[in-house]
User: Fold ABC transporter ATP-binding protein from Sinomonas terricola.
Amino acid sequence: MSHITPGRPPAVVRGGRISGGDVALQKKLNAEAPKIPHLFRRIAELFTPHRGALMLTVVLVLVGAALSVAPPLLTQRTFDDGLFPPGGHPDIARLAELVGLMIAVYIVSVLLGVWQTYLTSTVGNSVMGALRVRLFSHLQSMELSFFTRTKTGVIQSRLQNDVGGVASVLSNTVSGVVGNIVTVMAAFVAMLALNAQLTLIAVVLMPFLVIAQRRVGQVRARIATKTQESLSDMTAITQESLSVSGILLSKSFNRQPDEIEKYSAENRNLVKLQVRQAMSGQYFFALVSIFLSSIPAIVYLVSGWLLSGGVHGITAGTIVAFTTVQARLLFPLMAIMRVALDLQTSGALFARIFEYLDLRPAIADAPGAVPLPAASPRLGEIEFDGVTFRYPDARGEDRATLEDVSFRVEPGQYAAFVGPSGAGKTTVSYLIPRFYEASAGAVRFAGRDVRELERESLVGHIGIVSQETYLFHATIAENLRYAKAGATQDELEAAARAANIHETIMSFPDGYDTVVGERGYRLSGGEKQRIAIARVLLKDPEVLVLDEATSSLDTISERVVQKALDTAAHGRTTIAIAHRLSTVVGADVIYVVDHGRIVEHGTHAELLAAGGAYARLYLEQAGASPNGSRGGSAGAAARAEA
Assistant:
């Protein structure tokens, strides 16, 4: 089975996954529809929950199809029995009876069509909605590395463009295929009943049309895949360029014209593909239309030739009825061919959808995984035992991000990890909640290997405050309640006070109902961080992970946020990933990470006295500031004195 994961352009395929940096190869692979075994069976299974509605739809279709051939037969009787009976004078009573019956058939057919449309629309849109939710739910279960190597716009394209692209097929396939096939078969039988010789003339070229239709369908499927790839690229460009960060970047460098040109170029490519997709098959359908539309004229010619040759049984009513039935073949037959083309075209889109659904999360609960006991005395204890880690897309010759790392943090202890950029500090914070899986060794939480624990239970005991605070485009209250959906207003305010942000929130005209804007851009960096801290406090975890939580703040904001962090860390196991050593001088233990290894550890005073890597880093940072240390917090100073 193909598992092509778009995102970071691939150059090498390992274990069914792509890594590397070849953009051209990525586009080529994405342009080829993945091969999904039993694709059409899996598409059919999507309709299983709607069996009852489908069966009723099929019944309505069959009845409607049967009724569709009644008018031509009634037309024959109208001509031969009502208008031109053997006696020569119209039979008004018989004519009125036949006309009334024809009108009744039309009324019933229309009502059945309305009911059928409602059922097919309901089923189709329900299936499409369920497919979209299923895909979204599956993506939620994917590991973090999937999202770090995949553009958000590409994921959005699968959810919106690909699922939306199969909407008409999901809504119309059953009624279109069943109804039109029955209509064609019924019309064919009626034509045979009217005159076998004329029927032969009408269907002689049908096999050639079927062969041509298959070839056209293959071309359209390829174009459809390329069109969806272009839509995916446009969605990614839109998502990146029109986000707040993207707009700020383009305005800062005056690159708006380049962004417009990039979007325009992809748009031109999409327009060309859409035109090709729209035009593919048009000549084929024009040929079919000409052929089917010309048949009545040919029937008139052949009828005249047969009558002049002395053939009996061909009446005016027979000719009119036959051409009427044949005309009713035109739209159903073309509709069947169009549905067949749509199925071939949408097969590529379904393949792209199932390709994502078939991706298996690299990190999932193991069979027999257990929840963490709520009252374990070791809750909050964290241990790394000989942990080595490589990122999934790392090349074989690359060194490991972490190599043979071992440490133990006791419940309630404040542990800091410091070191130069790229040393592997943040990776430590990713392995604790099992966002990534250790390549070797073991990560233990409360004395249990994290691979033996239910991830939901594990993450439920961990709170994370990162450098890049993410707030939803919603109110402050809604952002806080993301940690605890049923939190009361009093709980929100208590968490905000502990995070030193309540007074700031109340200074806003709308208070806790203030909308923060996309990614919280209406707030300052310090305000966003303190709201993020309040959100974690509302969760009330046993373990707090602080990943460079103050590194992007100015000195004043850093002190305010650091005070809130000290409050949040009180009584909890705290893992602080820090670049500024002044923020962790009061930690119970400081681990110095360099090139993926822990090179030394101890308290601030012990490490300074040792004169090693920590002392050098501390002196470098102190020398960069006129006042030496950048202050730290009251809590940190108290720890340092102790």
Notes: Residues 1-31, 624-642 have pLDDT under 50 and may be disordered. The radius of gyration is 36 Å.
